[in-house]
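Researcher: Last one for today. Full complex below.
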Amino acid sequence: MKQTIKLHDKFFNYYLGKEKIDLAIQSLVQQVHDDLGDEIPVFIGILNGSFMFVADFIREYPSDCEVTFVKLASYEGTKSTGVVNELVGLSEDLTDRTVVILEDIIDTGNTLVKIYEIFDKLPIKQLRLATLFFKPEVFKKALPIDYIGISIPDRFIVGYGLDYDGLGRNLKDIYELKTNRMKNIVLFGPPGAGKGTQANILKDTYKLIHISTGDIFRDNIKNNTELGIIAKRFMDKGDLVPDSITIEMLKDVVNKHRTAKGFIFDGFPRTTSQAEALDKFLAEKGEQINGMVALEVPQDLLVARILERGKTSGRPDDQKEKKIRNRFNEYHTKTEILKDYYQAQNKYFGINGVGTIEEITQRLKEVFDKF
Ligand code: IMP
Ligand code: MG
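Model: Here's the assembly. Have a good evening.
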């Protein structure tokens, strides 16, 4: 089962599975059967959306029944009369029969109004209506719905017969339209520029998840994990941990936060290939990087800041000027290329990183607010 799918131009996230649908159908069948007893009902599915529901419903139905389908055709009328609905395909004689309409989904209830209008005119014995999905927040009609399978919030869903512009009906599970796009920001800047400090403030302001690859590696090193042991070999020398390791680790973290409003990537990506991998990974989720926000600080000021931090941070790579210089070299030779990468997509935002923490936060917020 896929977490995110794309239909036409839109992305949909997994919402609920076939098991839930099966349970709802079993319960619907039981309620209908309890009410109708020995009666032989005519089940009428409203096409197209209800075909799967009807198929599964009548397979569960424990006694004799008939089934047929109709289609509600909408005709664009003249400007004054608007939309007219009419039933297509009903050839059975329903005189004195118990009719149970099977609907896939009831949203505003406009379709339901038409259904009642049409069936109220027929000489049937009784009319019942069952719907698999129902949106109580949207439904505003004073009409009875006798049986409701699953109530859902006001979301647009696809799958199990339901479509988005023709697609998605064949999905076994239900997916919901993805609406709120994430704010995904790459916080960028040379070592000591204040990325961590600012990320900590901004993640609270914007309710984002802060992913510092450096912190994750350091945690792993501290806990002596397999990843930590590998990462330590590189980090102690002031080298970058290889892309493949970093990317896999980052994907794990992102995937753990399924409902996040977005991420602040701090210390990642550091190479063009990491940036490409990140773009690809986010695109599969229907997401993207909104921008790279870079703190620009002169190098001499940075060396002084890092040496100061090294007195308290306990980070071995903070304490020796030679190692610090090596990190700058890495930064300049490999990482700064990323500026070009994001600039080419019009996603580079340079921020003056000299000033008080508050001043710099303020400058960053001005950019974050635009995303
Ligand atoms: P109504 O608003 O209750 O009249 O629903 C009209 C029709 O819109 C339904 O029969 C469905 O065909 C379609 N519809 C409403 N909500 C959804 C949804 O979430 N996904 C797919 N189709 C929907
Ligand atoms: Mg329908």
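The two ends are 31 Å apart (CA to CA). The chain has a mean pLDDT of 89.
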